[in-house]
Amino acid sequence: MDATAARAGLVTLAEIAAAARLVAPVVVRTPLIPFPGVTPQLLIKPESLQPTGSFKLRGAYTAITGAGEAARQRGVIAHSSGNHGHAVAYAAALLGVRAVVVVPETAPKVKTDAISGYGAELVTVAPTLPARVAATEELMARNGYVPIPPFDDRAVIAGQGTIGLEIAADCPQADLVLVPVSGGGLISGIAAALRTSGSRAAVVGVEPELAADARDSLRRGEPVAWPAADVQRTVADALRVERVGALPLAHIRELVTDIVTVTEEEMLTAVRLLATRARLVAEPGGAAAVAARLFRNNELPAAGTSVAVLSGGNVDPQLLASILRSPHAGAAGSAPVRARLSADDPGGDLGARIEP
Question: Is 109 designated active site?
Answer without folding.
Answer: no
